[in-house]
Amino acid sequence: MTSDTGAHHIVGYAKLAQVWLALLALTALTVLITRVELGGYKVLGALTIACLKSGLVIAFFMHMKYEGRLLRWLLFVALVTLAIFIGLTFFDVLYR
Prior knowledge:
96 residues, 73% helix, mainly alpha, Cyt_c_oxidase_su4_prok, cell membrane, 2 domains, membrane, 3 helices
């Protein structure tokens, strides 16, 4: 028999609605960036906004904001590892 002694954090509907509206605004900003001529910075801007959106989703909808330090560090290590592999892929494509 197991007992659930951990405290659960409940996120209110108002907070989730605010995050959802922020995600919609960031999506609209992404679309607007594609219509402005920024050269190579267009991709950088779109990726920056995508990182912000994924951070919001991870923090609030996946409740990572309320998790312990160990789980947050493990997520950070996994994301850094993913970024390294993606970066190495870009270098491979760049120098072919």
